[in-house]
Records
---
Amino acid sequence: MRKVLSATCLGAMATFVVGVAYANEELIKMSQNPKDWVQPAGDYANTRYSKLNQINASNVGKLQVAWTFSTGVLRGHEGGPLIIGNIMYVHTPFPNKVYALDLSQDNKIVWKYEPKQDPNVIPVMCCDTVNRGVAYGDGKIFLHQADTTLVALDAKTGQVVWSTKNGDPGKGATGTSAPLVVKDKVLIGISGGEFGVQCHVTAYDLKSGKQVWRAFSEGPDDQILFDPDKTTEHGKPVGKDSSVKTWQGDQWKIGGGCTWGWMSYDPSLNLVYYGSGNPSTWNPKQRPGDNKWSMTIFARNPDDGKAKWVYQMTPHDEWDYDGVNEMILSDQQINGQDRKLLTHFDRNGLAYTMDRATGELLVAEKYDPKVNWTTGVDMNKSSPTYGRPKVVDQYSTEKGGEDKNTKGICPAALGTKDEQPAAYSPDTQLFYVPTNHVCMDYEPFKVSYTAGQPYVGATLSMYPPPGESHMGNFIAWDNKTGKIVWSNKEQFSVWSGALATAGGVVFYGTLEGYLKAVDAKTGKELYKFKTPSGIIGNVTTYEQGGRQYVAVLSGVGGWAGIGLAAGLTDPTAGLGAVGGYAALSNYTALGGTLTVFALPQ
Amino acid sequence: MRTIWLIAATLMLAAPGGTAFAEATDPAAVKSEDGKYLDKEGNPTFKVAADGTVDWYTYSGYRRYHSECHVCHGPDGMGSTYAPALQQSLKTMSYGDFLGVVASGRKNVNTAQESVMPAFGDNPNVACYMDDLYVYLRARAYDAVGRVRPGKREDKPDAYTEAEKACMGAK
């Protein structure tokens, strides 16, 4: 594959799929070549791990900026570029431009795609106009635009091959997440949990863009694609109407459960994994019941969308702890037994290790010791509350009720981690996790639903845990024991996706704008460089012309940019206290730039 | 209720010059009607007692702001990477212009920025609380309340409760 690609570059791509049954076989082969970065997370398992080792723990300190590229867009830049052969594909937030750069020709722009979108979509994006990147498959680049248009571009020319509409922005549905190409389909989620959208994952035919199946997060069994007898939770069939009976009346129709996180895929089990977000509204009193299947890990068959197993992590959410964060797939031994594992760092502050074939829960532990809303998950298999988190009354906004300000809840609604993806290194068998270290006061109150208008229903204020001033940590996590191995303090939340490499180095970005390299074993900081703006993008690596490069998008924004720009306040300070904690705006300003690093030649 | 805001918005847009900078008017409360304080021109305003007790509207505006507005304009009106700060805005923006912008939205899309504020005239969670938001942000503009949740407040006035019910109930 590599030879074909480098010999004839992209010209080969369209024809190469001949004789290959499915796009994923092509993708699996391509992602085994560490010189490329063919999927948003590097591979189907979402490991964000690269076998490249030219840059290693002993030389990373000499890293230099090799080249830079301005995206021409100011808003928050999440995600990262794809690298396929000589071409790098760089995406931007709204207006969702895509650039194809030729790495073999001085990073010249080969083509540029810029859609025309109604700017009225901007204010219905809850947390900035972010986009988490494009996907490749079958000679096409797939992009989910802000206005929910899913577009397939010819990877060679940037011409539109097909486009389809995935939702109605007039009702608050927007596109922010990266698609996943599986077999002959492209799968995509949708955003809009703060607008009462009934969210879903939808599969489109790679060639035609025709919808093949759509699986809602909540609703009747035929809408959520559950088989009441075969879809299981904790090994038991969920039964009929498992979702609708956990909502009052028709509330599931505006139930949220959005699907804007990263998806992963296990080809041998033929299962796709993703999580669903918060139930709408944020006021728990207004939606009695468990609100299934919001806050849920789904394992679905990509052929027909049918759910094999599910696990609802936070039944009846009271804190906006979306369950959308990525599922990282690893094959490891537990107690001497080979296990196919799924590891998930949830917004609710718990890290879950599961058997990804069966959905069996193996480990559920706090990955920030400050997490206080729960005393932990009931791990007793014979208990009627098996798998449920035990909620501490003091931090229950449901118990507190409407118009009552529940104080000191950790983590904040931002979660102990948000969308910023973690990395897994098979060398160390550790997970490298960018985290938030922020707590909150949360006061729910009654709201009324209007289509296309925010449907929030809670006031909240955020601040670091009492007695501390840092708002983030970058940690190494052992998923087998559920323990933190090392933890580095960061002044702000770490809102950048991590990268682990065979060079024994782990990379991540910070909100001030630093790209940092740390030792994978110890966490010792080995290198840092301040890029032009705060980093909420994910770090990527590739090889070109015999040199290893490390690339990251900077461009501060996202929820972090909204919440932290002006600095957090100390709610216990007296009237008139100003800026109790560091303000991000004192460190960085808007601006989208790709910065690419390499060792000096 | 919503019809009223839409009419108000239309009037604002029709006014020559659009949103103009007005002279700052003295925000001091000169009278109160059913728990709502008014300045000498009859516009809603804040009242903060010496012990820090705030009027109901300031308190309610704090809550509504941090539900509906802060997701773009940042906590405490301080602005964000996404939308401008509002902390100083009500020193120069008139009550009428404020209602107009909130009800009808505002667009500022050009090569340098892509700021779009939606129209909230149709959203009872905002439209029913216009005065609350105005009073809270006005209090912020004059540093009458800081970057914290108001600690002590006056009770919710009975007339307010009735008006709120009528407005939120109007589907």
---
Amino acid sequence: MFYRENGQFKTSYKADQQIFPIPQDRWVILAIVVFAFVGIPLLVDEYLFRAILIPFLILSLAALGVNILVGYCGQITLGAGAFMAVGAYASYNFLIRVSGMPALAAILLGGLTAAAVGIVFGAPSLRVRGLYLAVATLAAQFFWDWAFLRIKWFTNDSSSGSVSVADIELFGWTISTPTDKYLFCLGILVLFSLMAKNLVRGSIGRQWMAIRDMDVAATVIGIRPMYAKLSAFAVSSFYVGVAGALWGMVHLGSWEPAAFSIDRSFQLLFMVIIGGMGAIAGSFFGAAFIVILPIFLNQMLPLVGSLFGLEVSIALVSHVEIMVFGALIVFFLIVEPHGIARLWSTGREKLRLWPFPH
Amino acid sequence: MSFFLETLLGGLMSGMLYSLVALGFVLIYKASGVFNFAQGAMVLFAALSMARFSEWIPEWLGMDNLFVANVLAFVVSIVVMFAVAWLVERLVLRHLVNQEAATLLMATLGIAYFLDGVGQAIFGSDIYKIDVGMPKEPVMVLESVFDGGILINKEDFVAAFISAMLVLALTIFFQKTATGRALRAVADDHQAAQSIGIPLDRIWVIVWCVAGITALVAGVIWGSKLGAQFSLSTVALRALPVVILGGLTSVPGAILGGLIIGVGEKLSEVYLGHYVGGGIEIWFAYMLALVFLLFRPQGLFGEKIIDRV
């Protein structure tokens, strides 16, 4: 009834090709963004910021990066955690080794370093494909895990490989409280999402999708696979690297290599697949699902146990937690293999016709 | 020279163990096109089941014969792994036929999380001992040839022997039995196999059962070396380069790949490791596999990938 597009006529190509051609979409998204910037900081307490909202924002950004590579360019990667680590440690090194380096520049340079590393580790994709490539990207994961633990230069000679940074500052605004951190991450996420959306609907995004759908055919019609694949690796690693830098410098403050272990890589891939491959919105849905689910299970299981009069030990909770997590993922893949984004678009189709579906 | 040979032999033997885990990957990939990330979790699950049942069964039955307890525990564990295989096929794979490779990969990762959780919830999460009477003490051989001889770990030797036997048994199973032939037919072409009356569902259960048995054998051997504990599930990550080096679809590839990776890891750690600070085993294997892949993108013995537009 409200979500109806009949009667809306476009009179220019510009109007027809904007990101949200339907005004209702535009207004809802704008309202969400405004609410996220203004409403949430007024409503939410500190715990919620630290435990859910900030991780959600940063991991959405990382998932966005992984989605560009996996969802749009079709190259499965299991090494995303390593690129987060590269971003985090590179921006840390830029910050402490170059005097007077602004924090934002350090974060972006961290992302650029990750992009360069991404191109190097993406090079095998020119020759190796599919699952072979997925395993090959694990090489990046294990190599960087090892490098940040063993090569002391990266961690400024700290013995355990753990590093810490002071609160970062942005044009005189010290980002110290959770609200500041939230707003900072949100700002970056909004900008980067807009950029990603524009990339994937432009020429380069179409090249990625052509490579994903059938790379031989794409080559035949004149798309250079090397340029397309490596640019996907670079852009994806840039996003993931910036997310890693934010995770380390803004969210954690002090961290060690284990913060970016292989589990993180799996987690990011889960987000993309559960959220929806090849959909920008999917990255947000997936990140929300994966961030909230463990916290939810952690809180719920003792309650459920006490309902049946069982005393649930902490160890058992953690085991049942990963068990339920795994089962839910399998369940989700079976019910909706195309991810939450697909559910979302089906829902929208239904809404367009509601309440007269015929 | 004797030191080099010692390292080489050590590498070959640990390579044999890697191929044991890699075999599980290859078997399932060949028959169903699923890259089974849960293989490591299956190894852990099997090892935990073996360790705990060999502890519980003597308690329940009130006897203390180690050998009988081990045999019973092994049988029970096989039954458990069959149950796992059946449930996986019934509850997961059957519903995911014809999905994308990435989706299937993620599904098996979900299974891996589930198995890790269930295994530790049922069997506990400490380090448990698996004692199947493997000889522990090292021996010296070839003392007449080299000065000082070569130190060989008897346990590794027995383990390598057992793996070789298992590989032999699997080869005979695949080449000579009707079921084995059906499995190979399914691996070649699902549709053709189905059209001549081979039941796909049953084949998939069988292949997961076989993978379960290899996981059990791997779990017992690794478990008696390292103890049955959570870190066993990471053994799968060490075996992955073996699989892609050998080729995802080739049993001999898994074995040869295992040997190459085992030797490469040991030699690199001993001869290169101390230049860069040690611990390079884990990524060196991947780099080695990558270098091989640059020359043969489908692995050493994998089927050639032919692209058609």
